[in-house]
Amino acid sequence: MSERVLVSQLQSREDGPVSVSGWVETVRDQKKVQFVILRDETGAVQLVNPATRPDPEGGEQDAGALALTTLISEMSTGTFLTVTGDLKHDERVKLGGVEIKIANLEVAAAALPETPIAADSGLDKRMDWRFLDLRQRRNNLIFRVQTTLEHAMRSYWIERDYIEIHSPKLMASASESNAELFEVPYFEDKTAYLAQSPQFFKQMAQSAGFGKIFEIGDVYRADPSFTSRHATEFTSIDAEISWIDSHEDVAAMQEELLRTAIQAVADKHGAEIKELFGLDVVVPAVPFPRIPLAEAREIVTARGYEIPRTDGDLDPEGERQISAHVLETYGHEFVFITDYHPEIRAFYHMRDPETGLTKSYDLLYKGVEITTGAQREHRVDVLEVQAREKGLDPEHLAFYFDFFRYGAPPHGGFGMGLARVLMLLLGESSIREVTYLFRGPTRLAP
Amino acid sequence: MSERVLVSQLQSREDGPVSVSGWVETVRDQKKVQFVILRDETGAVQLVNPATRPDPEGGEQDAGALALTTLISEMSTGTFLTVTGDLKHDERVKLGGVEIKIANLEVAAAALPETPIAADSGLDKRMDWRFLDLRQRRNNLIFRVQTTLEHAMRSYWIERDYIEIHSPKLMASASESNAELFEVPYFEDKTAYLAQSPQFFKQMAQSAGFGKIFEIGDVYRADPSFTSRHATEFTSIDAEISWIDSHEDVAAMQEELLRTAIQAVADKHGAEIKELFGLDVVVPAVPFPRIPLAEAREIVTARGYEIPRTDGDLDPEGERQISAHVLETYGHEFVFITDYHPEIRAFYHMRDPETGLTKSYDLLYKGVEITTGAQREHRVDVLEVQAREKGLDPEHLAFYFDFFRYGAPPHGGFGMGLARVLMLLLGESSIREVTYLFRGPTRLAP
């Protein structure tokens, strides 16, 4: 393993013997010379072999050279192999200005000759063969961007003494609503439910005196919808902090977090994103614009779009409209929509005693909601009233109310969908494209 | 929020007005003076109030002072509050050499007067009231250690260009064995299964050309056992790397990873761990000792312990014995046990053609298994034979075999239980103590 050289290291390496490992992207099998484009996780390089074809006259030939030529001729795209050979810098080689003359070629695992998908296959077909689809440079980049984005967020939090938690996803009752809940038969004829969010348990950390916490983990929604933004399992980015004055403290943390994380992506992958996705990563300025929901609705209406929803919330087109307005007016891709009515918010959102509206926000990015954030109601008597107002069964929530009976600090937080952020950051059309293995109502494999 | 001062910052702060927030750990309500110990996520500080008691003679008194005294007298342990007052350095104060004279006290949420658990309550009782249990300094430290450990591991990987993945936990078939599998009724009368490990999907990343990947995420085992080391849901630390020569390359990565992560814990929390857990964090030297299983069995037998298992593997006492031997002989807390027979290993472990044994290891830490690592079989024809040998249904594994039909690199990796590492690192007796909210056959709440 120690001898392997990554393709990205070849250009800065001197001419001479070298060993590379990767898979076959293309083979050009010409009569006198064979070219193989080999790709690894860092790039692609041209391998070259002067072909030795069987002499029709039956003259004496190098058996090894004949065998190598045949091996390359018959080699399928996707075959994984290790090649040792002679590295040579040559300006005429378009691919990185280097090539390797093959001395030895060892196949690790040969691919079947027919590749079931092509780069332009439909999304569903590509998802059937996701492991092949992910070999594309664009797709590989998506997950390197994901890695950088997450690490930058975790580093931001850890530098500020946040504690990382892993809350359980098997629960005795619903975490958000009784709809869209996956049930799991459990021991002793009990039923467990898959967590729809870490909401209750990240609040528990506040009563536990943890102060500031974060979690990046999977959550589950038995959501039958087929939109480009919904999945039955997705990675949720969550944070919760104590001793806030309002949801504004949460928003201020989140915008700084996103600025830092997107800056890290721009620094590390900006050029490659430009090349492969054709867009510039815009690092957002802070503070992000804030618009109260009522005002946002007026702006959208003034733009000529009549919001069909009657509950006072924005619909997806309304979200696109208000984001377009913000981009035109403030040159900003993000906007916090604030001051939601309690009717369209979770029971645990704290309400402003003056306005009666919740101390909460949605965060839109390029026209799509990526977050709900709020100050939580930590006064258990108020919390119980609000739960009853929503028609929730206090008995099912007894364990949650307990979290606040033995003291609790004022606190708040947000949950953010990782795939949505990635989709929007990279200008993709669906979270399916940026999820390692998407799960939806009709998609459970591979 | 900006005005809040953390308790840990008080000592280095000049005397004068200050505001702190936290919860009441104790109240000493003396006739002439009241003391409150307030704790926040960073430490504890003494608050002091000269008591103003009602004048039995009915003389004129400061109503505010009277009210404050009464408030403190009636205050329950656990109540969360914000206090502003006058910080004063005073060597005579044992707790940090500072105290705050209360000027204003604002209760955020009062605690019920009877705290249901004490620090010395039984484990099960403490788990019922985990949010109170976690207020203990030791327990808070556990999760700060967890945070540091994980971040050090992720940083190690990211500095080496690993990609972080989030593999789905809803699967169409078992990931490890058909036993201990949670079933989830899914859409269209389908059944999903909760992933027992990310095994298949982290291998998929190898066929996808990702090169090196890691994942820290929850996995599920419908395991009816009640040992100190088992849970129905736990956080698994997984890595998988391409182009290895053998499992030795995986072991070399894992030992370096652990050395780095434990070093980070020792640096950041060593003194506090010593204080609260009474032990020294030992940063392991690399390489860790390696002992083939057959030799390990001989050593254990020579120590006078007869292993009852007949399948050739070590049992828990055998693991403790060989670890004791390694500690005595090499002064090392870790040991890789290698060369397991295929009968006691998963079908996907690669076998050494010379010995017939698997190219795999278990890693023991202080006498407990924390990891299985292996080179995987990437040649699909061999893999299918090995699966059939184990009596597995090739049809259920068809999607997995596909990962290797279109080319695959030699690869391997490991899975490691986060809670086991934490338990052993801190000398705790059960993973229940180091899991945020434990899940077991009879434990699904809170």
From TrEMBL, chains A, B:
Binding positions for L-aspartate per the UniProt entry: E176, R221, T372, R376
A matching Pfam family: tRNA-synt_2
Signal peptide per UniProt: none
Keywords from the named record: Aminoacyl-tRNA synthetase, ATP-binding, Cytoplasm, Ligase, Nucleotide-binding, Protein biosynthesis
Domain of life: Bacteria
Enzyme Commission number, as recorded: 6.1.1.12
Keyword field contains Aminoacyl-tRNA synthetase: yes
Gene Ontology molecular function, alphabetical: aspartate-tRNA(Asn) ligase activity
Catalytic reaction(s) noted: tRNA(Asp) + L-aspartate + ATP = L-aspartyl-tRNA(Asp) + AMP + diphosphate
Binding site for ATP: E369, G417, L418, A419, R420
Family classification: Belongs to the class-II aminoacyl-tRNA synthetase family. Type 2 subfamily.
Function in brief: Catalyzes the attachment of L-aspartate to tRNA(Asp) in a two-step reaction: L-aspartate is first activated by ATP to form Asp-AMP and then transferred to the acceptor end of tRNA(Asp).
Quaternary structure and partners: Homodimer.
PANTHER family per the UniProt record, alphabetical: ASPARTATE--TRNA LIGASE, CYTOPLASMIC (PTHR43450:SF1), ASPARTYL-TRNA SYNTHETASE (PTHR43450)
Name of the protein described by the UniProt record: Aspartate--tRNA ligase
Native species: Microbacterium fluvii
Gene name linked to the record: aspS
